[in-house]
Automatic annotation (TrEMBL):
Organism name: Prunus yedoensis var. nudiflora
GO cellular component term, pick one: membrane
Name of the molecule in the record: Protein NRT1/ PTR FAMILY 5.10-like
Pfam family, one: PTR2
Subcellular location: Membrane
Keywords in alphabetical order: Membrane, Transmembrane, Transmembrane helix
Regions crossing the membrane: 61-79, 99-119, 140-160, 192-211, 223-244, 268-287
Entry similarity comment: Belongs to the major facilitator superfamily. Proton-dependent oligopeptide transporter (POT/PTR) (TC 2.A.17) family.
Amino acid sequence: MELLSMSPTFTCTVISTKETPMILFTARFLNKALLAPDDFKENRKVCTVAEVEEAKSVLRLFPIWVTCLAYAVVFAQYSTFFTKQGATMDRTIAPGLDIPAASLQTFISITIVIFVPIYDRIFVPIARVFTRKPSGITMLQRIGIGMFISIISMVVAALVEMKRLKTAKDYGLLDMPSATVPMSIWWLVPQYLLAGLADVFTMVGLQEFFYDQVPNELKSIGLALYLSIFGVGSFLSSFLISAIDDATTWAGETSWFSSNLNRAHLDYFYWLLGGISVVELAIYLYFAKSYIYNRAGTA
């Protein structure tokens, strides 16, 4: 343990040396807010120890927030490109009856409804036997598992898209964007199921983490941080798509996101997202390993 001394008139703050260098630097920097001339203290212009500790607890969440953005970018594809893929495929479930491509998103909700009870009633008790933790696994471990599953969902999505493109080529449909590719839309179900399973771990874990790891007075800030991950992730997804579209059409080549999906390369995009997610998961694990929980019961 490292003891950071302030001045004789202030309470000392204890910071674990297990924290990352950035967190230690931030703690030292914020401790300076407790130092002020006597006239400042008389006019109540100096921060209290409680206010500084609250600021530290929020700032310590920032590395986790940043390293979860790749998951949010992947999350943005569930209701966009996944649906666009499905619209080009055979959606017939009965003669004269086609299902809307967007209806496959219900598999995400169904997976969540099924697996949340399984997680609470089966997975947690089993994990508790091995880890001796009341929650089975920590919140950060739960988030990391979901991020890993989202990488698998991108791999599956890329493989399915490669098969769809090959089917379109085999049937001579590359230049017929309005034609239905003779490949069942049910091929997309596994990636939706994996997306729902990833949400069971990461989305629920993020909500618990950001709500639990802020002071009681800042619970709304914690929830705002959780929600902002998906807002910023959607923005980053749009920015990434625009940048790739410009880059892939610069030399006169067909864009990865051409309106004719049979000539586009969504599979390349999914592979790219999978690669980005792998890198960000590695960085996330670094910060998660050094994170010190505010409450001992959640560790």
